[in-house]
Amino acid sequence: MKISFILNGKKKTIDVESGMRVIDLLREHLHLIGAKEGCGSGECGACTILVDGESRLSCLMLAAQIEGKRITTIEGLSKDRRLHPVQEAFVENGAVQCGFCTPGMVMTAVDLLSRNRHPSRDEIREGISGNLCRCTGYQKIVDAIEAAAKDMKEGDAE
Amino acid sequence: MTGTAAPRLDAWAKVTGRERYAADLYSDRFFWSGAKRAGIPHGKLLEVHTEDAKRLKGVVAVLTSADVAGSNRVGIIRGDQPVLADKKICYAGDPVALVIAEDKDILQEALDLVTFDHEPLPGVFDVEEALRKDAPLIHEDNPWGNLLRLVSVETGKGASAFDECDVIVEGLFETPFQEHAYLETEAGWAYLEEDGGLVVVATTQTPFRDRNEMALALGIDAEKIRIVVPYLGGAFGGKDGITVQCLLGLAALHTGGVPVKMWLGREESFLASVKRLSAKMHYRLGVKRGGAFHTLECKAYFDTGAYAGLGETVMTLGLEHAGSAYRIPNVTIEGSCVYTNNSVGGPFRGFGVTQVTAAMEQVVDMAAQRLSIDPLAIRRINAVEKGDKNCIGVTLTHSTGIKKCLAALSEHPLWMEREGWKMKAGQFKKRGVGIACMAHAMGYPAAVPDFANAKIELTMEGRFRIYVGIVDMGQGNASAYAQIAGTILNQDQGAFELVQPDTGRTLPSGSSSASRTTYVYGNALIIAAEDLKKRILDKALSFFKTARSQDIVLGPGGIGHREGKKKISLKKVAELFGETERTCKAYFRVPAATEMMDRIYLGPHIIFSYGAHLAYVEIDTLTGCIEVTGYLAVTDAGSVINPQAYEQQVHGGIAQGIGFALSEEYKVTEGRTDTKSLATYIIPTAMDVPDMVSIAADGVEETGPFGMKGIGEISISGPVPAVANAVADACGIRVPRNPITAEKILQALGKQNKQERPR
For residues B527 and B535, is the Cβ–Cβ distance under 8 A? Predict the structure, then answer.
């Protein structure tokens, strides 16, 4: 089937099998390997992308579900080769270790900050609780999101 | 510069999604491969039926053990694990066939079509049952039945010294299998080159060792195998050794040059990957009235599962640390590492030490309680100092900072203000504070040469390229190398490129394990970088009006005169070099014990890191729910090269330790996995871990690069005993088998109520 959607700001129309998962569409057909598959069943959050600005698990979505939607992946987050404030904060605060959870975690953080511009540490912890990280113990990720919230200006959200 | 916090070099590519992990390789044309797993715990393999799968359109090949040209065995010590099962199935994860197909869906369909005939054999799933005379044998050719290795150590008067003790405490402690649960499941990509060379890109901590194992198992010349290892998406010991490498290599031999990909799903990763060995530990500690430890008896059983892997070395390192960080003059330690039909045991951050520390640090608290000595005081009385002997009788000749760790802990507000915090517990809540000490050896045991070969190049562009010989599985050692070389060569981090491990380009430097990566490769790199610096200055002299190299200085991007303004770019200097002169290599071998080599299997360690941890826990007495609300870790890992990366290691270790303490248990019933996914195997989320405080105790390890020693593992051994001791402090109960779940707490509280109920 043919589907059309906006991918990282650009209109895309492609022919895909209707049952294809969005994670496979991104990784295998569109060569966007930033979204990772860590479980394939919605438990780890490594495949998180934004659909119309809201975080979604691309391993649990089928291609047909993104028809007409605005999709943002980690590759589309930095503009003009400038890191998004959340990405910048992840780097500066040491929130990245093995990095496999990082793209999903960053997307979730961007979504969180678009809904809550000044979250408390507890709200950040709750906001990212659907994204597993096995390296960091989360503390520096929470630090990074807290720092990003401080640095971000209106309009930086997505 | 070393000693200052700096973002890691790998962070930019990772945070933008550009970093290519082993699972991220695709090309226009490639095949998928996957293994048919046995699914049964023990049986004779009679015949594998591949015909139906082979007939399926899109199936490239279906391979069995008959297609393996070499020994078909892997396992670095015993070589007892088949690449593809031939005679027997020893656990549910054994692969019986390898399928190669044009896409993922066909692969799955074909795997379902592969069947096999087998004769079921009775299984054995418990270590003590496995040692009975009538137990079914897992490896019939093992002369000790199901016993893989027995290790015993005795010092002083051994157990007879219990007669001289005023107080004796004892307990049986158990720790379950723990799953690494790295976010990146095992993956790889392999292809044959035109000249017949086999290239395998894989998730592994051990590329050089794997190459030799693959050569033997598959019957290929080791020189024809090239293993490339990108950054790993976590490993923690679980990718130490062969996982997908041999299967991928075998697949690539049957695709006519088309690349082949393998990427385990989460369930298969859980089933087929190694686990932290479960342990049963009988502990008895004898103490003098003043609190001095006098006698320790530890009798332990470690379950290595179906194959040896590194199981016996895991147990041995544990036994070497059976007495934690204390002076104990009379010791009897005995450990049995045992085969069962459970999951295969293997390395996991902490490597056996996490298990014994969980037990030892609890009996220490039990002794303190019996003697009415505070748990910190009893630890300060017994903590080792440089020059003391450790629990296996080896004299500690390197930096030994546990007393400094305890001193820092004693002065911290979390310790000073603990009583006030406990008093503020709300209704139906109980609060407790627990502490634990730990030690962790760095590097390989004495009998195993522990070395690295560093290689650094001045590029024609005037930049520096470090050929990283040891895998970066996420701990950031590769970045630490740039920081070390940057300090010596006086260059900014941006001047460095890192070539990740590649048996074709980088030099053998051992595994990414044993808290050794920065220490051993860093030491080698210092020598290589110093050499390169000297060469650069010598060459650059020709640009200046001086013949003395001490008059010129190497700085960011170029060389200048100490007094003049003239500056020559590194690019200009690079042009003066011959091709090979621009590269410097150096070898470093870790200092190792030369005495008491027969004290313990493979010989003792001599360099240790130390830690003292403190946990705050709150328990809901109505539900049994337990929460760790605060955590302090003071660590002696020598000097700190990058405070940010150091904290990353401490935080990550604590979080994995808290998971092990409260929720993580890889459950296997009759050889079949109960916890098949991240929905049932519960690792901590951001809501399950508190904000943690990490303090680096002052100290310098004289032999370490810039004074450091290993930081990767030590912190994981603290949380189980610190939390267990905090639970005991909160409500007077001991849960001797982690995870300490709400159910276990409620049960223990119920028992306590019955005992306390007035007649």
Answer: no
Q: Hey, which residues does B668 pair with through a beta bridge?
A: B673
B680 touches chain A (CB under 8 A): no
> For residues B343 and B320, what is the distance between their CA atoms, to the nearest angstrom?
24
CA dist., res. B597 & res. B604, Å (int): 6
Alpha-carbon gap, residue B383 to B406, rounded angstroms: 9
What is the set of domains in chain B, with CATH numbers? 11-121+186-263 (3.90.1170.50), 275-445+597-756 (3.30.365.10), 451-589 (3.30.365.10)
Residue position matching structure tokens 């479960």: B278
Residues 6+ positions from A153 with CB-CB distance below 8 Å: none
Q: Do A45 and A57 meet the contact criterion of CB atoms below 8 Å apart?
A: yes
Alpha-carbon span A132 to B684, nearest angstrom: 8
Tokens matching residue B168: 């004796």
Hey, which residues 625-644 in chain B have their CB within 8 Å of chain A? 644
pTM score above 0.90? yes
* Domains detected in chain A: 2-75 (3.10.20.30), 85-151 (1.10.150.120)
Percentages (nearest 5) of helix, strand, coil residues in chain B: 30, 25, 45
- The percent of chain A in helix, strand and coil, each rounded to the nearest 5, is 35, 15, 45
Residues 182-201 of B with CB under 8 A from A: 182-185
Torsion of the alpha carbons at B460, B466, B468 and B472, rounded to the nearest 10: -120
Task: Write the DSSP string, B260-293.
Answer: EEEE--HHHHHHHS-EEPEEEEEEEEEE-TTS-E
ipTM: 0.98
- The pair of three-digit structure tokens given for residue A18, joined into one six-digit string: 């209707």
B26, B234, B656 member nearest A100 (Cβ): B234
Letter for the amino acid at B537? L
Question: Are A134 and B687 a contacting pair at CB < 8 A?
Answer: no
Q: What is the DSSP letter of A101?
A: S
- Cβ distance A101 to A69 under 8 Å? no
**Scanning the structure block, which residue is given the tokens 């991007």?**
B557
The DSSP line for B349-408 is: TTTTHHHHHHHHHHHHHHHHHHHT--HHHHHHHHB--TTSB-TTS-B--S---HHHHHHH
Per-residue pLDDT tens for B285-341?
999 999 999 999 999 999 999 999 999 999 999 999 999 999 999 999 999 999 999
Mention every residue, 6+ apart, whose C-beta is less than 8 A from residue B378.
B291, B364, B367, B368, B371
For the segment B593-645, what is each residue's pLDDT rounded down to a tens digit?
999 999 999 999 999 999 999 999 999 999 999 999 999 999 999 999 999 99
Question: Chain A partners of B16 at a C-beta cutoff of 8 Å?
Answer: 34, 74-75, 77-78, 83, 87
The answer to whether A29 contacts chain B (CB < 8 Å) is no
Token pair listed for B269: 């990763």
